[in-house]
Design goal:
By secondary structure, the protein is an alpha+beta fold. Helices cover 46% and strands 21% of the residues. Helix 1 runs antiparallel to helix 3 and helix 4 packs across helix 8. Bound molecules: fe (ii) ion. One of its GO terms (cellular component) is mitochondrial matrix.
Length: 228
């Protein structure tokens, strides 16, 4: 996740005269996609990828940074109501940044291994937990299709129990809101902005096709890091 520090100078005038205070607020910037916008076609159009990345993800980051700077000010002033008021903006926009940062890495062009089934220990645990990869895909697609409104469907690893689970979150809630031990292996964005330009209202078709560009290699790397 790209991170940069913006240093801003604040001028304060106190009873003893003029002084300056230097403050650092960590802010975030849009991560590059690891492939071209059109590289996931025909599963996901280049137009969708470009708007999704440059407009939607960027907006979450812009609003997250703004909320973090407001939070810094509110904490500095000891303004408890303002701190509380910012929590929903931080959850929504911070979640949007976290979720999309995972989502881009969860996808890969077919020529770079997108859609290739999981191998090694993750492949085995998928069979153990779900019976087969096909059964897992069907279950995730069913959960994603049934999710009301906007949200995400996840293949989660419970790193304490060493088990896989399918979870859904609403809006931009990140997976960690469903449990502190849950780590996202795969996340599918089921907001309309992720598919509507190409699939219109037929979310199940988008869910069916996204597996053709799923980056199981990334999921396996995360799994092996958490369950060595
Ligand atoms: Fe999205």
């Amino acid at each position: 996740m790209a991170l940069r520090t913006v240093m801003t100078k604040r001028t304060l005038t106190g009873v003893l005269g003029f002084r300056q205070q230097l403050r650092g607020v960590q802010t975030f910037s849009l991560p590059d996609l690891p492939y071209d916008y059109g590289a996931l076609e025909p599963a996901i159009s280049g137009e969708i990828m470009q708007i999704h990345h440059q407009k939607h993800h960027q907006t979450y980051i812009t609003n997250y940074n703004k909320a973090l700077e407001q939070l810094h000010d509110a904490i500095t002033k000891g303004d408890a109501p303002a701190v509380a008021k910012l929590q929903s903006a931080i959850k929504f926009n911070g979640g949007g940044h976290i979720n999309h940062s995972v989502f881009w890495k969860n996808l890969a062009p077919i020529r770079e291994g997108g859609g290739e089934p999981p191998k090694g220990s993750l492949g085995s645990v998928v069979d153990t937990n779900f019976g087969s990869l096909e059964a897992l895909i069907q279950k995730m697609n069913a959960e994603g299709a049934a999710l009301q409104g906007s949200g995400w469907v996840w293949l989660a690893l419970d790193k304490e129990l060493k088990r896989l689970a399918i979870e859904t979150t609403s809006n931009q809630d990140p997976l960690v809101t469903k449990g502190p031990n849950l780590v996202p292996l795969l996340g599918i964005d089921v907001w309309e902005h992720a598919y509507y330009l190409q699939y219109k209202n037929v979310r199940p078709d988008y869910l069916k096709n996204i597996w053709k560009v799923m980056n199981w290699k990334y999921a396996a790397e995360v799994y092996e890091k958490e369950c060595p």
